[in-house]
Amino acid sequence: MFWFRKLAAKGNSLAQDGLGLCYYTGRGVAQDYTQAVAWWHKAMEGSKFVRQQTAFRLAECYEKGLGVGKDCARAVEYYCKVGRCAYPGDEPYHSESQYRLGLCYYNGTGVKQDCAQAVQWWRKAVKNEEYPKTTYRMRHHPQAEFYLGLCYEMGQGVEKSLYRARDWYMHIANEGHAQAAFRLAALYETYKIGRGNTKDLASAAKYYRKAAEMGVDGAQEALDRVEKKIRWGPLALFR
Q1: What is the rounded CA–CA span in Å between residue 184 and residue 203?
Q2: What is the pLDDT of residues 15-65, one digit of tens each?
Q3: Taking the alpha carbons of 87, 143, 54, 44 in that order, is the dihedral positive or negative?
Q4: Which listed residue, 4, 91, 158, 161, has the most CB atoms within 10 A of its CB?
Q5: 13 and 51 in contact (C-beta within 8 Å)?
Q6: pTM, two decimal places
Q7: Cβ-count burial of 27 within 10 angstroms (0-12 exposed, 13-18 middle, 19+ buried)?
């Protein structure tokens, strides 16, 4: 704190950023979100370049109302500063900002609701324009991938495609995303998206089981229902 203060007083943006972080976390000084926001603003003003970490933290503060009045429009402004440019070492902030911008557009938070814009930001967050067939080129952002699957399933901001929804859900369901596993199971149970354009109750049971093991509400009941269908076929309707 001693050296940060000396350098920050001379206009050093790195020290101002560090001083803000100390106030934000309460390291070396009493926690004070208002001071954190003030120093981060100084760091942004004193730098020739967009400091992605600083802009990201400011966006979070405006979104949550920490040290400043809650202002979702300002949060979107700062998320945009981060989401539109990327520098080495700042990749986590870059993709996370793009994901959060997608949420803002999807929910109409701080900006006019626009599902098509939400989809575009989520595609940027995973660095993929269509669906996960070229996984070696993708960033891994499970929540952005989940919402892409949801948009394809519901036809929000994109043309409805259950096959693309299936692919997005599957990509993260196999890595432990509980809600993706549940929605994927429901697709297999309800629609003809299995091999040969048929319903795939075995896959539905597999993913309901995964969801149940991860504690998703209703997953165990759904698993029992599907296993009953598998055992009894059409007669399950009468039992």
Answers
A1: 9
A2: 999 999 999 999 999 999 999 999 999 998 877 766 788 999 999 999 999
A3: positive
A4: 4
A5: yes
A6: 0.86
A7: exposed
